[in-house]
Amino acid sequence: MKTIAKILGGFIALIVILLLIICERDRPVEELIPLYANKDSKFMPIMGMKVHYRDEGVATDTLPLILLHGMSSSLNTWDSVVISLKAHKRVISLDLPGFALTGPSPEMAYNFPYYSKFIDSFATRLKIKRFILAGNSLGGAISWNYALHNPSRLAKMILIDAAGYPKKGESGSLGFKLASTPVINNLLLYATPKALVRKSLETVYYDPASVTDEQVERFHDVAIREGNREAALMIFKGSFKGNPESIKEVKTPTLILWGDKDNLIGVNNVDNFLKDIKGSKAEIYKNVGHVPMEEVPGKVAASILKFVQ
After folding, report:
1. Is the N end or the C end of the chain the one with fewer CB atoms within 10 Å?
2. Domain locations in the chain as residue ranges
């Protein structure tokens, strides 16, 4: 027993030492704003947060497009798509609560009802009566749940590699696997190595070589923004409780866009959405991973424009 106790004690001591070596402090948002906000950035006080967003394009457009990013991402995921869309549409991108410069929700409520309430409040503050919602990954799941919450306000919807159905053997990313592993995931509150961020991004893209040092730096910085790691941990521990059966109740005209090499949410999900959302349409991009709006932004912008016009 003493030998086992010594081994266990040594293992715990090793973990403590490793944590002391690699642990990172949270970064105040004041440090990050000069790095990741630009001339189009605005900060809206809403629901106890200062929400980072950009409102670009055709100001007179009465049916604007609101873009929602995925897990551990930011509005920057849409940058290249916005460049193509803003000549034709009013385009609004934002950092969702719990992520990037917006940071954690004071309510610490990361679930579909909370995000539906948030979208309603956000649109109301911008005096938008009806809009088109586009979402990638987790943002896609938030979108179709909003379509159930307030269908009269939603004119159309675009789901891009959207979450919603149970996974069926996808390989996933290393970071997401660690963040979903009990006990180990608690360590990510203190240590978020850039090497892990890079490895996770490389599994998100079809071509790992397309991941840049600049992207790794940005994803790492916004991940350790004050409060964001706690928010991510709550989400990975299962704060979102979706009901795939309810997707059949969606009546909003829907376009489904997908990368055929998505390792996180497989392309087989396209058939599920097409079957459950009556009248929906789909486009599949060849040799593209989980984030088509970053990998083939021109094609995604063209698909969206064709659908919304």
Report:
1. N
2. 24-308
Helix intervals (H) in 153-250: 174-179, 184-187, 194-204, 213-223, 228-236
Q: Report the C-alpha gap between 283 and 295 in whole angstroms.
A: 15
For 302, the token pair is: 């063209």
Tell me which residue of 54, 129, 61 sits closest to 92, measured CA to CA.
Answer: 54
Asked whether the beta carbons of 122 and 96 are under 8 A apart, the reply is: no
Rounded Cα–Cα distance for residues 69 and 76 (Å): 8
- With contact defined as beta carbons under 8 Å apart, do 231 and 99 qualify? yes
Which of these CATH numbers, 3.40.710.10, 3.40.50.1820, 3.60.110.10, 3.30.1490.20, describes 24-308?
A: 3.40.50.1820
Closest by Cα among 113, 131, 66, 121 to 93? 66
Q: Is the dihedral of CA 231, 71, 54, 146 positive or negative?
A: negative
* Whether the Cβ atoms of residue 232 and residue 225 lie closer than 8 Å to each other: no
**DSSP annotation string for 9-49:** HHHHHHHHHHHHHH--PPBPHHHHHHHH--TTEEEEEETTE
The Cα 176–Cα 265 span in angstroms is 12
| Reported pTM | 0.88
Side chain identity, residue 304: I
Q: From first to last of its 309 residues, what are the pLDDT tens digits of the chain?
A: 556 555 555 544 444 444 444 567 899 999 999 999 999 999 999 999 999 999 999 999 999 999 999 999 999 999 999 999 999 999 999 999 999 999 999 998 999 999 999 999 999 999 999 999 999 999 999 999 999 999 999 999 999 999 999 887 655 655 555 555 665 555 655 567 888 889 989 999 999 999 999 999 999 999 999 999 999 988 887 778 889 999 999 999 999 999 999 999 999 999 999 999 999 999 999 999 999 999 999 999 999 999 998
Compute how many other C-beta atoms are within 10 angstroms of the C-beta atom of residue 148: 17
